[in-house]
What does this fold into?
Amino acid sequence: MLSSGNDGTSQSDKEKETLELDKIIEQEKTECGQWLTHLLNWSLMCYLLFTNLARGTASVTSIFALPVCGVTYFVLIVAFIVICGIFNYICVKKQRRT
It folds into this structure.
């Protein structure tokens, strides 16, 4: 029979938890373990910068001279939202795997 600790958990539960924690610590030990997350974040930031420059603002004109509230203007916004959703899906799938 498994011995029970003071907090009501069995020894095998503690060993299993220790193994899971060791796996997480090993994975998180270097920045290389997070390269996909960093790559996704930086590419999203670059796309956001591109979208803002392409759309322009009230004080700064678009780098492509896009008309405000035109079709291309809204396509850029929708594309940004879709890409954010795709990146979010990728990150959630990556987290569930680990």
